[in-house]
Amino acid sequence: MEEIEDIIAAQEAEAPDISDDEDPAEDSWTTEDATTVAKQTDRHVFLYRETVIPEKIRPFFSLADLQPGKKRKVVLWHENHRFDAFFEKTIHDPPLTRLRWGKEFGSLLASAYPEWVEYFKKTRSESGIHHRST
User: Fold this and answer.
1) Hey, where are the domains in the chain?
2) Strand, helix or coil for residue 120
3) What is the pTM (predicted TM-score) of this model?
4) Which of the chain's termini has less CB crowding within 10 Å, N or C?
């Protein structure tokens, strides 16, 4: 496995800047089977405690009826620890559906993956870390 510094150097050398308006998360979700989706973590996961839920993944979370400006509570679990979070549909045109969580879960991610927090603070490129939701 490459060291994080090597990854950062390689990305900075070859990757163009990504605008804040672009959504690199669109292709970061994949459906593995009827009970599992995988999320390739990105800078928004580590730096902003959120991720966009693309249209193709919304049925997995039963979000078809979520209206703009509304939220739906959800619980994230890590080992025996509960973390409150929520799905929301923004009032943007077009609206985004995203999953957002609090500081506690954000701190857990930061302590588990400190090298990736630093990576995303230094570069706007994306990573290759995957997490599953079942």
Assistant:
1) 37-125
2) helix
3) 0.71
4) N
